[in-house]
Predict the structure.
Amino acid sequence: MIYSTMPLSNHRFNHKIKHALEARETQGLYRQRACLSRADQSVYHQGASLLNFSSNDYLGLAQDPTILSAWQEGLTLFGAGSGASPLVTGFHSAHKTLEDQLADWLGYDRALLFNSGFSANQAVLFTIPDKHDVLIQDKLNHASLMEAGLLSPATMRRFAHNDLSALTRLLHQTNDKSPSINPLVITEGVFSMDGDLSPLATISEQCSQHDAWLMVDDAHGCGVLGDKGRGSCDLAGVKADILIVTFGKAFGLSGAAVMCNNDTAEYLIQFARHFIYSTSMPPSQAHALSAACRLIQSDDWRREKLHDLGHLLFENVESSIQLVDTHTPIKPLIIGDSHKALSVSNALKAKGLWVSAIRPPTVPVNSARLRITLTAAHTEQDIRRLATTLNEVINDE
Ligand SMILES: *Cc1c(COP(=O)(O)O)cnc(C)c1O
């Protein structure tokens, strides 16, 4: 039997989609993927070679020969896909080795692997707190944490970015309401769009005073900060109850791990649906991640180089340019207006530099920016070229 349907173009969904796209366009918020090819630190787009200042590959590991050959070796040793989810037959020796290595390096009982930071955050926020609990998040936390918080059974409260007195107020309110509510405080170690750090030492103290658990998403700090790249918590001298590390940034690969105590890991294995019902990452990838983890610990020079390149950039941009000096490889240049941020980004592109404009809703309204990121694979010459080009382009605007 053949069902008659409305002509496709008249369907209500088509109208809705077309309308939403038009609105995005007029607001200067239309997003497009650029199809790139890549070698070294350059990206190739529409026939041009552009120097990339927008990747999160902070330590320059994504193209490192050691990592590439580790992945190839992993393929020979373990084959292509993992074949199943971890509780079926998808948990292999390469996964176990990586988990043990991460736990040992970061000082936790356990590490539990996930396919992405996005799913790790959902897994934790959907399963640890109950309906009577309260999640307290920094307002600038990553979209994956906000989304997970909204969908979690718990009530979500948010405090102004890095505002400790606002956090204290929320903790007091929660404790006053019922002493049996244990809040879960969630912050990033390094904020991805601003490159600033959260005051983890004070936050951790506040959490102990109010019997709250602390969860730190250290996607941008792990590998980059702290002794042997252990991250933001190590730098601040604190241990979070739950630490999220992601492998798409400084590790140069992809995936994530939840660092926690034994019971929490066992609990997540029983109840976290993102863990239970998702095919585990290829064991060859876990093998490559183990190699990345070793390089992160041994190669202090990568962190030292990032530091030096950051200095060099600031020495060479004109003081009229409002580039934010940070302790991380993320150097935001706040422009404000979305259209203008886009036009500056395009002007840089025309001069051979890839610097993405980041616009709302990724960042607050009127704070569109260029998010400049440095990597250990950049050269001093690359940084001088960035500074010179910024000086030209920004002064022209
Ligand atoms: C990138 C990022 C994530 C998401 O991690 P993926 O592995 O890319 O899914 C989560 N949290 C923060 C803070 C991030 O920057």
